Fold these 2 entries.
Entry 1:
Amino acid sequence: MLDLGSLQKQMAAALLDGRFDVLEGQVMAGPVGAAEAFGLHRNTVRYALTNALRLTFPTVDSLVGEAFFDQAALAFVAEHPPTRACLTGYGRDFPDFLACYPLAAGLPYLADVGRLDFAVEEVGGCALGRDGPVLDLGEAVMTLDASLRVLRLDAPAAAIRDALEGGDDGALAAIDLNPRPRSHALWRRPEGAAIRPLSPVSAAFLEGILAGASAEDALTAALATG
Amino acid sequence: MASHSISQLSSSDAASARSPIPAAAGIGLRLQHHAHVRRERPEAAWLEVHPENYMTPGRADELLAFADHYPLSLHAVGLSLGSACGVDADHLRRLAELERQVRPDLMSDHLSWSAAADQGGLVVLPDLLPLPYTQEALNVVTANIDHVQGVLGRRLLIENPSTYLQFSQSSLSEAEFLCALVRRTGCGVLLDLNNIHVSAMNQGIDPASALGEYLAWIPHEAIGEIHLAGHAVRDLEGGGQVRIDDHGSRVCPDVWGLYHTAVRTLGARPTLIEWDTDIPAFTVLQDEAATAQSFLDRVRTRELAHA
């Protein structure tokens, strides 16, 4: 007879890899067979995790379609099962996984689309209207929103997201997919996350402010990068 | 091992409660209805939510706004009270933080597990997985409930799960197991009648007899809430059927029958309509809650007539 910890460890592994034979002998015969019963739990786990990823990465899902998304999500789940009960934040590594996922090799922009989706989800979970860093410009002092962050990408992920959200196939087809530095500011708004493009200098300046630099130091450093 | 009596924990509950959950029919609030509830404030005696969905500052603010207008219950799904590796400290800390902010009237989780030790860390599966009902498991769950109740400073209600299998090493029935938990920890019980129906049918047992066993074992004063939901019936490849606790339809007539028996035996209890898949318009949930309320009203009328 397995102790409880060993039984749970074996069950968790079996529910992830689908090999229920290791649990033979642990379950009484009943109207529902052991393999069917464990299969129901496995389906619940797989559905819950793919659905959690789908909710966090809606643009990736729209781009690749349900079947491809499920396949990629389940491959990710097998390598990165959750380690926390709260699934908020689950999938942080999904964009990096997509960047190396062989079946997505023809979609080099997909990982950046995922990075934007994840950032939007994170910002959406921030409190609304909380004060963050102070931008002291001498004659003017501004308090920035605590949720404000800078996201640097190479792919036109924001344009792709806008086109898909608007159902605008023409705009989607016209997007320049060539990689080049693209920076964005994101912050929490009542309806979710606001996304605005930033010039390279603006992005560097804002990053400096968010890192705690003075306005003067942040501006000097930003101009040096430009 | 800390031990709490129900009376000690009840006084703690009273101190922390914003307003008591009425012994009336409430509704499980899901994300799909947030905007409607925020905008229209539809009629509902009380609301219940999964706290794991509100563990970010933004979501917590939303929940606080709901708490201004409705009595609230936090129905956790992530404590993994049956885990041999104990309760995840970080998850409990976040739950306690939300509890302090929201001050819910009821808090509950399940007689199940979802987290297992794995290579020095944890693997957490988003499901309510079944336990063998053994003395070892009883000691594990007792310790975990004691720990959680100690940290939260309040009583938890523990929900009977829906099951598709039974472990060969089980030496106690589920009702005996829950009764022992009540006596050891002072916890309460959240009696899920759909789960009783689903489990009994999947084990080839008469659901009415199964409910009778629960009502015989568990002290009635410990039953602090009732859950009602729908389930799916699926044909098995080798013949026969399996009931799946999908919370995706109206409460079935057999479960209403169990509810009739339960409230006649227990008296009125806070009762929740749960609906988690293929979620319909809020008015459908209100309609189900009205049906449950009609049972509660009849019980109250009967109680008044006997008084």
Entry 2:
Amino acid sequence: MTDTRKLRSSGNWRTVYGGPLLIGVLSTAGLLSALLYEGLGRYFSWLALGAPIVLTAWFYARRRRA
Amino acid sequence: MVHTWSSLISTLFLLLLCITGLPLIFHHEIDELLGYDPKPEVVQPGAVKRSIDEIARTALANDPGRVLQYILWDKDEPNNIIAFTNNKVDGDPDAATLRAYDAHTAKPLGSVGGGPMLIFLKLHVDMFAGQPGKLFLGAMGFLFLVAIISGVVLYWPFTRRLSFGTLRDKSRRIAWFDWHNLLGAVTIAWALVVGATGVINTLAEVMLSQWKANELTDMVKPYAGKPPPVHLASLDKTLENARKTAPDMTVSFVAFPGTPFTSSHHFAVFMRGDTPLTSRLLKPVLLDGETGEVSDARDLPIYLKALLVSQPLHFGDYGGMPLKIIWALLDVMTIVVIGSGLYLWVVKRRKHRSHAIVVQPSLQPSR
């Protein structure tokens, strides 16, 4: 599993930092939305800040299946 | 090198902060459960709110020999009025007593705070070591930020050949290495914000004394050299005047003359807005302690605004229960990042040492 993935990953900045960067931007938006907008902003913050947790669970589940 | 040392020095304290911070996310719920968060009685039909002067008298009668420092209106329970008494107006914050009073009956409802959550809070804020302890934890928080940023730089050479989210179970070391990278990567923004706002919070006293030395001194210039008020003005009249100055705002708390939040001559009534953001941005109205007339009202300087806005971003208390649960899970993920980082360092070091022992003898003959 690891070896095929190693081959697939070419090691440019997008494959390395792309995922974390996206999660980072999403989390920051979530942190601010609940502070700036009542109601909708709150719901968005739950989704956006929950994303790192859901993503981690997904990576974990996928690892188990492989 | 930067990543290793900034993390190592701060590791134990960061673990302390993360672990004590975990129950503090839910301190409101826990305090309520343990009876440290008294609730007002059900409002009887036709009941009228008591005057604040009466509540102040009741509070002083309840704690004889003490003085009032602050009266605070609970944001979530407007019928809960919390009175702070202390042995003197500028007494040690740890010596303050907080009691809740019912807005309609002026009945004492019980003391606020205290209990196990206060111990967690003290450990989290200053480790029972006062201002030096607080500033020390601030420095540890700063190292945490350095560790995160240096970790981002190291992320490149270490994960360049792996796809995002790779979790291998080849060996215990590799498994923890992958978890360290994955959890570290997905929590970066949250950890940076909670870390940075925590550091800002450690500077609260420094910022407050800065404000008192500059803005506040300037606001109370006409009173320089005057003796402090002997007979305090009526609180209800004072509050009414403050509300007139900021009609679209609500009273958050009033600081009595001589307390750390105001001058020795003035009541400071801190007004707040009502959105999640503006409810944090307090505006002080200064009122003459003897007459209750408005002396001055100015917005807080930018650094105190930054402090006030940074607080919810540190506590996670501004988005309901789901946000608190998310905050707790992200905190647990951060604990795993710190713990696995420490583990990886120990394993690497052990390997180096055993390596050195094996290598040394073979080097000896050549010397």
